Predict the 3D structure of the following.
Amino acid sequence: MAKPSELLTVGRVVGVFGIKGWVKVKSYTQPESAIISYQPWQLQSVNDLRPVVVADHQFSDKGLLVRFEGVQDRTLAESYTRCDVLVIKALLPTLGAEDFYWHQLIGLAVIYVGGSEHVKLGEVQGLLETGANDVLVVKPCEGSVDQQERLVPYVFGRFVLGVDLQQRRIEVDWDPEY
């Protein structure tokens, strides 16, 4: 069994579908269908973490429908509702040099390097998906230049100058006065 730090939440079982053991799954992946390729799954409830095997799945107008191995009726399927779907991070596909998974960026320090001095703007608390580009949500933290929350467009080469996962920092050209 994987350690909690090795797992990533990629979806949630949000309800049951029909009487033959199917459940509805809300995928957090992009595209949403990618969740199926991230196997094996582990389901996290309030009290427990249990591995499951996806026996069958289908996409419908109701969203992603899944049936787990050994689950043949609605009553048993109901026990899986409100569980998060977790996968082992190491099983995710390798990305290109300038591509990162959102979970890798959360918690990184954001440093303004556009001027003569480096200024800590805060830490990435999350990301927003917009039509044009993703946006870093930067919250103040210990050592921040001020207590202002910032939204920094995640445009590599324009506003985001570099990401260093080892140093846990993102260098940006985003003036602290913005």
Summary: The first helix runs from residue 74 to 78. The CA atoms of residues 22 and 67 lie 5 Å apart. The longest strand covers residues 7-17. The chain has two domains: 4-91, 102-172.
